[in-house]
Input
Amino acid sequence: MTVAIAHAGPEDYPDWRAMWDGYCAFYQVTIPESVTQQSWSRICDPMSPVKALMARDATTGAPLGMCNYILHANTWTHGPVCYLEDLFAHPHVRGKGVGKALIDRLVELGKAQGWARVYWMTRENNATARRLYDRYVKADDFVRDMVKL
Output
């Protein structure tokens, strides 16, 4: 299977939405419909820092995975940084290189566009994702704290 990666556009909504729903189900979260629609609107807005990549089978065009990411300024580097917020591969292709292809494409974009880094986080017990992520870098010693408002 050859994986083709491209930025998501309005025509990708049905496939993105199915994967988004799968991602939310995997993490057992319910995102309000208004937030999902706002996220998609941001992804399709060329002026927004929120973007998405779609992974498809290069031969058939079948959707295989997606990732949502956010470019933002930071106080430690000159260039922007990329937060890989959501990464999803269809269950039938997990472990077959789809997630790696999406991350590799983000790294390529970052190098070409002068980003300082790509970073992400996942649940400590997500062993499948950890195996992939550890190929790139070992988790650092930072702990995430969050105040929900």
